[in-house]
Amino acid sequence: MASIKMSRRGFLNTAAISAAAMSVPFTLKRSAASDNNAKEDKKLHISQNWCEMCFWGCGVTAYNREGRVFKLEGQPKCPKNYGKLCARGNSGIYQLYDPDRLKKPLIRTGKRGEGKFREATYEEAISYVADKTNKAIKEYGKGTVSLIAHGSGEHAFINLMSIIGSPNTAIPAYSQCTGSREIGWFLTYGRPYTGNEPIDAANSKCLMFFGRNVLEAVMVGETQRVTEGMAKGAKLIYVDPRYSKTAAKADIWAKIKPGTDLALMLGMINYIINAKLYNIDFVDKYCSGFDELKQSVKKNTPEWAEKETNVPAETIKNICQELSNAAPSCAIGPGRRLTRYGDDTQHVRAIGILNALMGNWYTPGGFYKISKMDIVTPHICEIEHTEVKGGEKIERVDGAGSEYRLAPKNLGLENKLMKGILQGEPYPVKVMFAYGTNLFQHYPDYEECKQIIDKLDLMVTCDVYLTETALYSDVIFPESTYLERKDPIGVMTGKYPYVKYREPATAPLYNTIGAYELVEKIAKKMGYKNHFKTIDDVNKEILDQLGISIDVLKKDGVYVKPTFEGIYPQAEGKDLKFNTPSGKVELYSVFCEKLGFDPIPKYTRHKMPKDDEFRLLFGRQSYHTHARTQNNRWLLALHDFEIKAWIPAKKAARLGIMTGNKVRIVKGDKKSRELTAYVTDEIHEDAIFIPHGYGRITKFMELAYAMDGASDANLCSNGTDPISGASAFHQAFVKIEKV
Amino acid sequence: MIKNKKYVMVYAIDRCVDCKACMVACKAQWQVPENHFRTHIDEKYSPGKYAPNRKYFLPSQCNHCDEAPCVSVCPTKASHKREDGIVYVDRDICIGCKYCIVSCPYDARFFNEEVGVAEKCTFCLPWIQQGHQPACATTCLSNTRIFGDINDPNSEVSKFLAEAKRNKSKIWKLREDLGTEPNIYYVQS
Ligand code: SF4
Ligand code: SF4
Ligand code: SF4
Hints:
The complex is a heterodimer of chains A (739) and B (189). Chain A is of the alpha/beta class. In chain A, α17 links the parallel β14 and β15.
């Protein structure tokens, strides 16, 4: 791909000019409505929405002037963001007007992946999908239909799966992201941690994170709370092989040898117990297995941990002291994407134990209690013959709930579903729907992705862009962006539970569709008789239960539950109950033992890279989400259209690589596209780091493709955490070469 | 005597996390040309304890200088200082000679090829006249950016600066030695 003669910047400039020319709404004219001298906004149309540039769902007010959405602003009352939007949130406008968006339904004409499609009508594309799906069901049974989905429309497709009666739904957010975190927390506290990120950071005196790059992998509310807490004096302790933006803001940055976090945690537990830094009252009253824990970590002294982790024993002791000084107003975050080393559930268990030793459960500055709205969320479609309602039981392909007993069936295991499809076990899966998710950028190995799709008779994608997954699809449905559509009112849990409202900020720009409408049509075409309510009907049911009028939502975008519930039950003197076998916080997990796993986390050294290898680490940039935003020019401009590979200085010198050089990542016979070297002491010498979401193969996302870069998904490992069933990506060793 | 408004901005720079939301909010609101931003966040280093040097993040935009070179070099008076303190470019008068762009010691201006005028931060005029805050300050995740009238002792900026002085925080402006009298205050505790 290095055949582009112009400099990358030059190339992108050209691309941009053509992009701007296509997207008329961007062209600024003298004395146009956007003129700085305009005195009054007479034609302002204001609408409410929630941001879908990531999955955090910040409340957004959209301003439309004369048909063009020109500004997005955070809703001041939304508990997810209190008036703020991140860079991605602000750039939702670019996505709306992006000339690369999907505009019409497409049906494949060439070979899979060849990129040849023809435009089709909805009628035609839906008939095609319905016929092929019915045919596959007839031949192979209902279970032959599978779904991967992420985003506000996912429930529409989950409905479709229920209507069909197939159990093979997998939400990648579990197996490819937070699965181990939920299970580790569940085993320890008797409930999952949840995406509410219930750390009371704004009131905390000390916060600690292990590779949860909380100030760079931005979710507005969480970032707000952490910066707020720090502004009030909270200490920030951060553990990461890399000097991320969170590390830059931290009071203590522990530059850990990658893969050894559990050793550090055990070292901390050992020291906290021996130096009696723990909360004796809380441990006595609410924890089970303390003596076993003490015994189990006996040899894991800070000095031992130093040898494993490269974090000085003195630093480990300091960290413990800082936490204990602040306790119970302190919290140790369990991370978010925990698909690292295959022992991630135990990693989270150890974090759970550290928190329990601080006694910070349901206290200000520790963890707060999540509550919900007192309403029943209505179903848009009443389904008659689901598995739940006495339909035939079909075995799941992914082993969620059976082989992986703790993996929740409603989320499934995408990684295992894919393996099942590839192997044709336990039965052939021939149809896949992908909604808003891009398999190629989150499932290891492009070749394997292709082989998986090759096993299918029908691959259907519904998305905003022609992603890699769409490229390999047979039928593509263009989704309306969140700014162009209506969705059912969202009912949210949290510290302050609320409902959120979505109305179009503009009429659809193209011939696009919302997921609910699409699914209703597919189900009808397949011959199912289920009745779908309209979105307005569902909204009315919710509003009636709340006893509020739609005007409240039209004004504020959200309605926050007015009654105050105890957020800090422990501090309020209430007795705590835990939904674990012992009814306590399980330092010693009875459940783990029953399943044949270590009841107390133990450290086993992972395989380490050879001298000429690096462990491949990857993660987020502040201004990109997954592989979804890399075509957004406003965001690419924030990092000068450059993708940096962080390379440790000493090893780089040996390879003759200097900052600014073009490099490739090499793994076996795979070679990545080009990245720009960033040679630095700010990363542990075992590792290189690349940002997620690049190295694209779909040329239909022109800018993303032109960015080059490496795809971590194509290079990472494909391990499994045996407890949660979730993936392990960071066990891949790679080399790096100068171009 | 009622004083004129004097708009200024304060950056509580310890808070900035380099999320660059401000840059995009501004770009969106004013349709800033593709390759430009009116405000920037730069990575800087200072000697620190843990990394070889400690990284911090430094926002910048037009300083709305009281003694603005961009204003004095402008041959048409398109660039002018308003009574409310804002340094503004009148697009109908600007002839695109670019003198101001070179004269600005802060590199705050750029040439808008699409419109053919010099461009920079306007403190979101006229949006602020409708009772809004500037786009960057509104969206700033960490409340690094505080905007308001420094002639009003009860404004948020005045109160924040007073408190910063009481706390003996470090307060400075960029290149004060140049005599440009900038109006962006940097505060670090
Ligand atoms: S964190 Fe940013 S991208 Fe995610 S929902 Fe909020 S504003 Fe949107
Ligand atoms: S910062 Fe530059 S553009 Fe702004 S007023 Fe000062 S000299 Fe003029
Ligand atoms: S929005 Fe605020 S925190 Fe984010 S980069 Fe801008 S000034 Fe810094």
